[in-house]
């Protein structure tokens, strides 16, 4: 396969500064008694209106921390934002006073989590919890908030919503709880929805329902979505673009079709080759050797070099910059071209 | 709490997740430093925590001081606490007697130093015996559950309902012997028999937690006997919290011994004990308060030291408080 | 380590047979005078055979009873009724020496590599524990050497024998768990979600290790997982469970290519395929609702409340897991048929 065959659709290219949400060169450290863990090391990505960006990574890659920094919910300490900008509609959230940030949080950008059970307060009925935001922030009356809560529960397809307002979180199944959390996140009509591993704790048939729901809601409400996940299958189903994270860096960034067709970073390539596929038979699983790095001692040069089959001396010495491959693709690998050509073969 | 639930919840979430993002996933940053190769355990964390606490060092120093006093009292005074001369009644400090003399003409300081032995002996042995009872009862009750637990838990409830001092008075009244050894042994026995319940409850709950762990299931699948599972897999994990509770109990046993001796039903002369001296000092308080104040202070410091030490260790071992 | 293959042990013969296994957990009320008010039917009549040298995958969603099944086979739970024989010996009637012998022959790898290893024991003690419980398996003098061999077999450094579990990563810990399961040279290993707690890039390493060990040692696996892709990759035959029952069982090909039970078809169609090109061509069967509570399963066919084919007969008559006309592998559906699109 040649480069021309690569799908040329990085969702909607907008001029510099015109992005809905943009993370620029973010650096975050965790200062612990053990030492300093460099959790985010220069992450940049952007999100345009109406698109779905998948942020893919394994545990410790920094994918969730980036999202927490966007939401302004990092625990500081131990987390310290060393440098970088998070621009929402051109304004830097990091330099805003807390009061203004709170206006953005929930109203403009909302977030849902993997574990719906612990994200919901077990001692209040779900209808009350959905309505609380509306009463507190939109100044709705009790009755209005109630009616809107029913609408929201209908929106996320909770059957017989009106009769379930008074139920408590434990009376809902895992999938239904996830829907309740989505309804809460949607209460203020956010423009950006960050979904952090929204289906990891769910069974496969329920996962499919929730991913469908998220895709429908994104389209119907014209939101942009950041989908944080480790699941390559889930990403393939819904994402427009994908950013692959490793050791606090984005190692590859591409539109989803060209990335799956021909990954241009050895880490992405390794991941794609190491997952068993249900639709491919008798496949030999290749593995990525070794372990993810300790973030207190990130390897020199390219952080992936100790595990990389393409490793050369230059990888040990020099930190690779993002290599632009055209079509809006970048790969932080000295041998990006070569890797992509190998993958496409 | 924030005014917005999604965020409130997420803050909660962020706190639990720590740096790695996924709960339960290998955490390369803090929790388990798998790749640093440096072992890190609960005990290690607790020690790091303790090292920075002045209260831990102060209480530890006091415990060491009083233990040394109990072991080798001659290090602290060259006077004989039993060398009492009525002519020196309530005399001012002189020679080694830095706190003067009491009603009987004995060296107040020397008596307080020599009193440490009986107090610590009673405290330590009662705590040890308490530990044995608590570990046995807590282990059986927690491990076997069902009717064993039902019976033992009710026994714990009943013993817990008996007022310690009242029962101790009733029981010790029956000990007729005035022999020092017999009296010390009786006090230890009575305190342990009445005081093991809190520790047993702690052991029981940590046994129940440990029993549910997968590694216990793994041992069972290998065919390990109940005894082996309890000894190798559960006891080591239940021991630490028990030791903490027992340290605190040790302090209160010392106080209880002093109370019983003060009431004249614990230790008796010629045994030297803070409780006895406090009682004697009280009688002649108007003439000289020092013979009352000195043993009282020694007693208060010892009890406080053990309770603070136990408290500090317990806090350090409790990840929820960190 | 050498394969325990002796001339009498033929690959493909039945090594483990499970017949109509049932486990109901009583739901009780009251503290002193407990009264049973119901039962969670975790495993509700399960039968299958495991053949020597094969991998039987067991898939299903949470609450389907697959983990309880594993615990029953390992005798961590007592079955309510039913029978299981390992090489002809009754698994549930065995006790004493007989049970010890059976345990040596069947071991388990647990899901969570963080809680399955005692944090206060060294790796040497953990892997050596089987030899202490079964002293006849290895004479005392040779135990350390055996432990080191086992570490080597699972791809860990034999010199790390004195380290503690927390000094290893999740994948390495899972290897320690595998080494412990291998210590007594069992012929059957039950793997309960052995890779689901691991990172994607580590999963493949452990799957490959399990496959390699099977080839070298002639092991038979019962591989329990919720990840259908992993199960297809490793299994020769697959059983699909729903609410305590096996609804369909067959070869990997029969289940994944020619499933006749609607639940299996829905389950397979819901698995996300890691290929964006197939995004629109994938025809997903959307199941409505949630899995009913195993304490109160629907009458007749347990799946009927979510099934688009359900008729009156489904509520009345419990479909048997028997070969069906549509394809000759056992399927528990009155209306078993191949999925038109998949054929």
UniProtKB/TrEMBL annotation, chain A:
Which keywords belong to this entry? ATP-binding, Cell membrane, Membrane, Nucleotide-binding, Transport
Q: Name one Pfam family in it.
A: ABC_tran
Q: Where in the cell is it found?
A: Cell membrane
Annotated ABC transporter domain ranges read: 23-272
The terms under GO molecular function for this entry are:
ATP binding
Q: How does it sit in the membrane?
A: Peripheral membrane protein
What is the protein's major site of localization? membrane
* Matches recorded under InterPro entries: AAA+_ATPase, ABC_Ni/Peptide_Import, ABC_transporter-like_ATP-bd, ABC_transporter-like_CS, Oligopep_ABC_C, P-loop_NTPase
At the top level, the lineage of the source is Bacteria
What family is this protein classified in?
Belongs to the ABC transporter superfamily.
Cited NCBIfam families: oligo_HPY (TIGR01727)
Protein's recorded name: ABC transporter ATP-binding protein
Q: Which species?
A: Micromonospora thermarum
UniProtKB/TrEMBL annotation, chain B:
Q: What does the sequence similarity comment in the record state about its family?
A: Belongs to the binding-protein-dependent transport system permease family.
Localization: Cell membrane
> What Gene3D superfamilies does its record include?
MetI-like
Transmembrane portions of the chain: 55-76, 120-144, 151-172, 184-203, 238-265, 292-313
Please indicate if the UniProt record lists Membrane as a keyword.
Answer: yes
Keywords of this protein's UniProt record, alphabetized? Cell membrane, Membrane, Transmembrane, Transmembrane helix, Transport
Q: Which residues form a coiled coil?
A: none
- Recorded source organism is Micromonospora thermarum
PROSITE patterns in the record? ABC_TM1
Query: What domain of life does the UniProt record list for this protein's source?
Result: Bacteria
Location of region: Disordered: 1-40
Q: What name does UniProt use for this protein?
A: ABC transporter permease
| Membrane topology note | Multi-pass membrane protein
Q: Does the keyword RNA-binding apply?
A: no
Q: Which residues form the ABC transmembrane type-1 domain?
A: 116-310
InterPro entries from the xrefs? BP-dependent_transpt_permease, MetI-like, MetI-like_sf, OppC_N
From TrEMBL, chain C:
InterPro entries in the record, alphabetically? AAA+_ATPase, ABC_transp_ATP-bind, ABC_transporter-like_ATP-bd, ABC_transporter-like_CS, Oligopep_ABC_C, P-loop_NTPase
Could you tell me which Pfam families the record lists for this protein?
ABC_tran, oligo_HPY
- State the source organism's domain of life: Bacteria
Which PROSITE patterns does the UniProt record give? Answer: ABC_TRANSPORTER_1 (PS00211), ABC_TRANSPORTER_2 (PS50893)
Q: Which Gene3D superfamilies match?
A: P-loop containing nucleotide triphosphate hydrolases (3.40.50.300)
Similarity remark: Belongs to the ABC transporter superfamily.
| Alphabetical list of SMART domains matching this protein | AAA (SM00382)
The cross-references to PANTHER family, in alphabetical order and at most eight, read: D,D-DIPEPTIDE TRANSPORT ATP-BINDING PROTEIN DDPF-RELATED, TRANSPORT ATP-BINDING PROTEIN
Q: Which residues form the ABC transporter domain?
A: 16-268
Single GO MF descriptor = ATP binding
Lineage summary: Bacteria, Bacillati, Actinomycetota, Actinomycetes, Micromonosporales
Alphabetical UniProt keywords: ATP-binding, Nucleotide-binding, Transport
- Signal sequence interval, chain numbering: none
This one is known as: Dipeptide ABC transporter ATP-binding protein
């Amino acid at each position: 396969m040649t480069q021309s065959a690569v799908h040329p659709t990085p969702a909607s290219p907008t001029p510099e500064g015109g992005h809905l949400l943009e993370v620029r060169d973010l650096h975050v450290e965790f200062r612990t008694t053990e030492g300093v863990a460099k959790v985010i090391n220069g992450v940049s990505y952007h999100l345009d209106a109406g698109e779905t960006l998948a942020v893919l990574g394994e545990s410790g890659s920094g994918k969730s921390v980036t999202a927490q920094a966007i939401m302004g919910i990092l625990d500081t300490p131990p987390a310290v934002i060393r440098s970088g900008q998070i621009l929402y509609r051109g304004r830097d959230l990091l330099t805003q006073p807390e009061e203004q940030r709170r206006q953005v949080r929930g109203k403009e950008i909302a977030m849902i989590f993997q574990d719906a059970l612990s994200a919901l307060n077990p001692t209040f009925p779900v209808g009350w919890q959905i309505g609380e935001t509306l009463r507190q922030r939109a100044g709705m009356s009790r009755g209005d908030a109630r009616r809107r809560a029913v609408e929201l529960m209908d929106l996320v397809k909770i059957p017989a919503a009106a009769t379930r307002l008074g139920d408590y979180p434990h009376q809902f199944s895992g999938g239904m709880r996830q829907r309740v959390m989505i309804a809460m996140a949607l209460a203020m009509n956010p423009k950006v929805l960050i979904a952090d591993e929204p289906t990891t704790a769910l069974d496969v048939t329920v996962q499919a329902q929730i991913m469908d729901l998220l895709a429908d809601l994104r389209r119907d409400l014209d939101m942009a979505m950041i989908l944080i996940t480790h699941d390559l299958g889930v990403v393939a189903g819904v994402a427009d673009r994908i950013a692959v994270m490793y050791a606090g860096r984005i190692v590859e960034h591409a539109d989803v079709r060209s990335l799956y067709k021909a990954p241009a970073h050895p880490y992405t390539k390794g991941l794609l080759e190491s997952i068993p596929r249900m639709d491919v038979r008798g496949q030999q699983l290749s593995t990525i050797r070794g372990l993810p790095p300790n973030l207190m001692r990130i390897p020199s040069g390219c952080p992936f070099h100790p595990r990389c089959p393409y490793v050369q001396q230059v990888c040990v010495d020099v930190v690779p910059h993002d290599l632009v491959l055209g079509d809006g693709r970048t790969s932080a690998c000295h041998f990006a071209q070569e890797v992509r050509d190998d993958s496409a073969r | 709490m924030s005014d917005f639930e999604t965020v409130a919840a997420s803050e909660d979430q962020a706190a639990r997740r720590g740096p790695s993002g996924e709960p339960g996933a290998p955490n390369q940053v803090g929790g388990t430093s798998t790749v640093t190769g440096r072992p890190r355990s609960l005990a290690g964390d607790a020690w790091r925590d303790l090292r920075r606490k002045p209260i831990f060092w102060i209480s530890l120093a006091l415990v060491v001081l009083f233990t040394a006093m109990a072991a080798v009292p001659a290090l602290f005074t060259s006077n004989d606490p039993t060398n009492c001369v009525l002519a020196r009644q309530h005399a001012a400090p002189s020679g080694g007697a830095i706190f003067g003399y009491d009603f009987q003409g004995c060296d107040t300081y020397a008596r307080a130093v020599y009193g440490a032995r009986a107090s610590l002996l009673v405290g330590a042995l009662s705590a040890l015996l308490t530990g044995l009872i608590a570990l046995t009862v807590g282990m059986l009750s927690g491990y076997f559950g069902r009717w064993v637990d039902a019976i033992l838990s009710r026994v714990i409830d009943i013993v817990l309902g008996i007022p310690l001092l009242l029962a101790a008075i009733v029981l010790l009244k029956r000990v007729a012997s005035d022999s020092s050894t017999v009296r010390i042994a009786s006090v230890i026995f009575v305190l342990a028999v009445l005081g093991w319940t809190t520790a047993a409850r702690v052991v029981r709950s940590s046994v129940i937690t440990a029993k549910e762990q997968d590694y216990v299931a793994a041992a069972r699948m290998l065919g390990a006997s109940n005894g082996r599972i309890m000894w190798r897999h559960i006891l080591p994990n239940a021991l630490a919290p028990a030791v903490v509770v027992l340290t605190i109990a040790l302090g209160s046993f010392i106080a209880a011994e002093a109370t019983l001796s003060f009431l004249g039903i614990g230790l008796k002369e010629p045994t030297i004990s803070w409780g006895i001296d406090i009682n004697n000092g009280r009688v002649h308080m108007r003439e000289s308060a020092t013979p009352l104040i000195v043993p009282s202070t020694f007693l208060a410091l010892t009890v406080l030291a053990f309770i603070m030490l136990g408290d500090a260790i317990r806090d350090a071992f409790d990840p929820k408080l960190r | 380590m050498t394969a325990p293959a002796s001339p009498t042990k033929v690959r493909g013969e039945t090594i483990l047979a499970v017949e109509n296994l049932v486990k109901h957990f009583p739901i009780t009320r009251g503290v002193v005078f407990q009264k049973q008010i119901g039962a969670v039917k975790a495993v509700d009549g399960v039968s299958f055979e495991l053949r020597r040298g094969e991998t039987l995958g067991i898939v299903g969603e949470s609450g389907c009873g697959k983990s309880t099944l594993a615990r029953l086979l390992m005798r961590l739970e007592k079955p309510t009724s039913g029978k299981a024989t390992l090489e002809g010996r009754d698994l549930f009637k065995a006790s004493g020496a007989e049970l010890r012998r059976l345990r040596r022959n069947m071991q388990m790898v647990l899901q969570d590599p963080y809680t399955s290893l005692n944090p206060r024991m060294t790796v040497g003690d953990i892997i050596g524990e089987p030899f202490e419980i079964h002293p006849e398996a290895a004479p005392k003098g040779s135990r350390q050497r055996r432990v080191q061999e086992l570490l080597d077999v699972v791809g860990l450094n034999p010199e790390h024998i004195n380290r503690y579990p927390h000094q290893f990563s999740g994948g390495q810990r899972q290897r320690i768990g595998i080494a412990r399961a291998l210590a007594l040279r069992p012929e059957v290993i039950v793997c309960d979600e052995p890779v689901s707690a691991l990172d994607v890039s580590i999963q493949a390493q452990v799957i490959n290790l399990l496959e390699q060990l099977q080839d070298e040692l002639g092991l038979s696996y019962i591989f329990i997982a919720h990840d259908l892709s992993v199960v297809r990759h490793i299994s020769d035959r697959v059983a699909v469970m729903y609410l305590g029952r096996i609804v369909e069982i067959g070869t990997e090909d029969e289940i994944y290519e020619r499933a006749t039970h609607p639940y299996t078809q829905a389950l397979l169609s819901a698995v996300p395929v890691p290929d964006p090109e197939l995004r629109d061509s994938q025809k997903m069967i959307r199941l409505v609702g949630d899995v009913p509570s195993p304490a109160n399963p629907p009458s007749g066919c347990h799946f009927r409340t979510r099934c688009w084919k359900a008729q009156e007969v489904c509520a009345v008559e419990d479909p048997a897991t028997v070969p069906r006309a549509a394809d000759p592998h056992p399927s528990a559906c009155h209306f078993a048929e191949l999925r038109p699109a998949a054929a």
